[in-house]
Amino acid sequence: MASTRMHFADPHPLVRSQYSSTASHVCDLCRSRLAGLIGYRCDACNFDAHEACADYFKKSITFFAHPWHALGLSRIPISSTGLSWTCDLCREDCGPGSFVYCCAQCGFVVHPLCTLLPQVIHSSLHIQHYLHMVPATGNCSGCREALPVWHYRCGLCAFNLHIACVSGSGGGGGGGGSGGGGGGGSGVVGGSNLGNRVAKYLLKQSFKLAIDAATGGMASAVMGVLPADSDDYS
């Protein structure tokens, strides 16, 4: 008999499942595919989650970008089609049906994957000092393009980098240097830039090291289910 578990994101018991290598199911928490991996599924709600994501992402978290209140993981109603929900960290859309961490008091919203972005990181483009993620405006010292609200900065040197430029590989401009995506298992998908942006940044060695240090290695299992190929993201 298949094992089951309860999870706060779904009201029904979730069945532990081995997804086939050709499965098209998408994790409702991180938005990457479950093909060939172990996860949990609710047929009644069409809810799916990687085992790693179900274990890691908690019902409520504290987050450096919004230290005033705890953030709760909740689902944007599918009925909110036509309304605008935007991740305050990466500035990408959070589509109807998306799971997001939000502050009900302040309206602060962030994709679950964006909460893995480290507050402090080291970059080969600026080896003198660590860079801190801060909200500010200006231009990127790497690619020279305009910065989004949140980016990495060395205050001592006035050195700023897009999230994408931290690794030294460029490609940070345009959409603000990061991205995220959401969408529910119902087939409603929002934020198609997820595979090309935040998820790939998290797999860069500089980010992985910083995330491991910040989480004591607890987030490694989540990064292990993020495929580097953007075609594997919805």
UniProtKB/TrEMBL annotation:
<keyword id="KW-0479">Metal-binding</keyword>
<dbReference type="GO" id="GO:0046872">
    <property type="term" value="F:metal ion binding"/>
</dbReference>
<feature type="domain" description="Phorbol-ester/DAG-type">
    <location>
        <begin position="11"/>
        <end position="61"/>
    </location>
</feature>
<protein>
    <recommendedName>
        <fullName>Phorbol-ester/DAG-type domain-containing protein</fullName>
    </recommendedName>
</protein>
<dbReference type="InterPro" id="IPR046349">
    <property type="entry name" value="C1-like_sf"/>
</dbReference>
<keyword id="KW-0862">Zinc</keyword>
<dbReference type="Pfam" id="PF03107">
    <property type="entry name" value="C1_2"/>
</dbReference>
<dbReference type="InterPro" id="IPR004146">
    <property type="entry name" value="DC1"/>
</dbReference>
<dbReference type="InterPro" id="IPR002219">
    <property type="entry name" value="PKC_DAG/PE"/>
</dbReference>
<keyword id="KW-0677">Repeat</keyword>
